[in-house]
Design a protein that fits this description.
5 helices; two-stranded antiparallel ribbon; alpha/beta; three-stranded parallel sheet
Length: 116
């Protein structure tokens, strides 16, 4: 499996430019790869998305086959509307994949780099 890499603050544009150049060179060599990089402007922005309940949800989704948000809410013993809002926020942030077939988190770890 792959990891999700999160950059918080700092020179986000420079980091993205370096990743783009590396990806370009890898593609020119014919390599196939899949990476997921996310960027948040500040710690506060990340903390608003990645709450304790949402981390619990991510861990559950990573380990179980989740067919629907309703089934996820039932499994977590949480209110459907709160779980639905969490799934939407995590999907918008790029931490979950939600489709008609269910909800997935196809990575093993979240690697975070926080600029000071």
């Amino acid at each position: 499996m792959r990891d999700v890499k999160i950059t918080v603050g700092g020179a986000i544009e420079d980091d993205a430019s370096r990743r783009f150049v590396k990806a370009w060179h890898r593609a020119n060599r014919g390599e196939t790869f899949s990476e997921r990089h996310l960027a948040f402007e500040s710690w506060d922005a990340l903390a608003r998305v990645l709450t304790g309940k949402r981390m619990e949800l991510l861990r559950y989704v990573r380990r179980h086959d989740v067919r629907s948000v309703r089934a996820l809410a039932k499994a977590l013993k949480r209110d459907y509307s709160n779980v639905h809002a969490d799934v939407q926020a995590l999907t918008a942030a790029g931490l979950l994949d939600a489709t008609d077939g269910g909800v997935r988190a196809d990575y093993d770890a979240i690697e975070t780099k926080i600029a000071i």
